[in-house]
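User: I'm preparing a small set of examples for a lab meeting where we compare how different chains pack in three dimensions. I only have the primary sequence for this one, and I'd like the structure in token form so I can line it up with the others. Please keep the answer compact; I'll paste it straight into my notes.
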Amino acid sequence: MNTTVFLLLRLGIGISMFGHGMIRLTKLNAFSDWMVGSFAKSVLPAMLIRPFSLVLPFAELGIGLLLLVGLFTETAVFSGAVLMLVLIFGTTMVENWEALPSQLIHLAYFGLLLQFIASNTWAIDKILNK
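Assistant: Understood. Below is the structure token output for the 130-residue chain.
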């Protein structure tokens, strides 16, 4: 894969994750309350949803930031993919089919980046590994 294409894809998913985390952090309690309410009729207990909803924005922000600067890129990409799998599971538990395509696209982006991680040359990782 072309290194410039990899950079553009990494930055795109990085901006998306960073933006998701940033906006949710500005209204963390309201976001958490919304998420708990969204899962009220699911089989998942609120005692799991509340902590997850409070950690999710920090995970999104951190993964996004790492991807934007190209630091620990492979770990960030893998973590993003795992996070998407968890979100997809939750989405199916509440039958929020409208959110599923976006999450699947994010997962595909992470999979593509992981497949072509050797093309990650425009990154702090490459400077540190010299």
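A couple of notes for your slides: The two ends are 21 Å apart (CA to CA). The CA atoms of residues 66 and 76 lie 6 Å apart.

User: Perfect, thanks.
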